[in-house]
Amino acid sequence: MWQLLRLADRAAHAAAMAASGSADDGLSAHVSDISNSPAFSALDELTAAGKLTVAQAQLYKSKYSKLHEVVLKTYENEKNLLKKAKQLNTDLGAERAKLEKAAARAQEDNEAIATLRAEMSKGESELAMREERELLLQQEVHELASSKTELAADVQTTQRRQAAELQPQIDALEAAVDEARTELGKHKANLAKLTKERDEGAERAQLLRQEKSDVETQKMQLNAQMVKVKSEPEKNKKAADVVMVAAQSLESEAAKLVDQLGFLDSELASQSKKRKEIEEERMGLAMAVRLRPPSAARPPAAARAAPCAHTRTPSPHTIGGAPPLGDRAEGARRRRDPKEH
């Protein structure tokens, strides 16, 4: 019996070794088939030798078969457990790598969280400072608004007081501006009249210069006739006397024309000087009108355009007592043609 058990143990051990040699291809047919196993052969030999009965041999074979199946199952379980252990070891390595990565990432996250917490703390301190500054600014704004209200009230009071104090001056300035406008209108009218008189005087001076030129021409002609008469016989003495009288008359007329021209020149110079003074006064009045306060009212159009009532308008026919142009022209014509008279 003990020999049979030893044989069965050796057969199981051989089967296990054979199974381990064929782990990748499953159990071999020799291992799976136990009918040709050494244990069955030993039992057959013992039965043939009469040491065991057939019933005992069958019993031992049945137990061996069961034992063989248990060994095979144990081996299969070990093989599956080995595969599973390898897979678990691989999974464990992968999980360990993942865990290391997660730990590194957690460390980075912890550092980032610490940085963010430091920044958050800094931001909270800045926020507190800003809130405190905002409160101070709000208080300052409130104080400035109160000061603004007080200053606005003071400004209004000052404006009303200054307006009341300056109103008489404004009224006086408005009256002065109105008077200046009136005077400006008068001076403009006088300037226009003086300009017209100057132009007329210039025309008369030109006529007198022309008459003077004509008189000098006649004088030269009469002098030539006088020289001619002096060289002729006595019969022309009377004509020479007439020519002499005419020459003296022309000389007298020429002297009068020279006096009149001198008077007209002096009158033109006086008018030019007066015109310059009027222009300066007009410019001063215009400046005063431009500098008038904005609240000053404009004078009526009739007051601005009213001419000077007391200004004397000189006669267009006389300037400085000079005779009219028609009379002087007629006298000059008579002097040029004495034979007609």
Description:
- There is one protein chain.
- The chain has 341 residues and is an all-alpha fold.
- It is 83% helix and 0% strand.
- It has helices at 2-21, 29-32, 38-49, 54-230, 237-290, 301-305, 325-336.
- Helix 1 (2-21) packs antiparallel against helix 3 and helix 3 packs antiparallel against helix 4 (54-230).
Structural class: mainly alpha
Strand content: under 5%
The pLDDT mean sits at 76
Overall number of structural domains? 2
Topology pattern, helix = H, strand = E: HHHHHHH
Spans of at least 5 consecutive residues with low confidence: 21-28, 295-326
Give the number of helices.
7
General form = rod-shaped
Largest sheet: none
Q: Tell me the total number of β-strands.
A: 0
Draw up the topology in text.
Elements: H1 2-21, H2 29-32, H3 38-49, H4 54-230, H5 237-290, H6 301-305, H7 325-336
Short characterization:
The protein is mostly helical. The chain is built from 7 helices and no strands. The protein folds into 2 domains: 109 residues, no CATH class; 165 residues.
Keywords:
single chain; about 350 residues; mainly alpha; 2 domains; rod-shaped
